[in-house]
Amino acid sequence: MNGLTRTVPGVALGVLLACGSASALPHAEFVNIGSFPDAPSQMNARAVTADKSTVIGEGVVHAGQGTIVVHFDMDTGAFTPLPGTGGDMRTASHDGSVIVGWTSANDPIDPTRRGAFGYYHRLGDPESTIVPNQIFNAISNAWSVSANGRYVVGYRNFTRQFNPCCATFMDGYIWDLQTMNEPLNLPDPAGTGRFATTGVSNDGQFMAGFAEFPDDSSVAVVWAADGSSAQVQVPDALSSRFLVMSANGRYAAGFALMHLGVGFDFREDGFIYDLQTQTITMMGQTPAGFKGAVPSWISDDGKTVVGTLNAELFYDFPFGAAFIWTEEHGLEKLADHILNRHQGVDPSEFRDLVTGYGASADGSVVVGVGRDQDWNRFPYAVRLGVDAPSCPADLTGDGVVDADDFFLFLQLFASGDSRADFNNDGVIDADDFFAYLTAFAAGC
Question: Residue 410, SS3?
Answer without folding.
Answer: helix
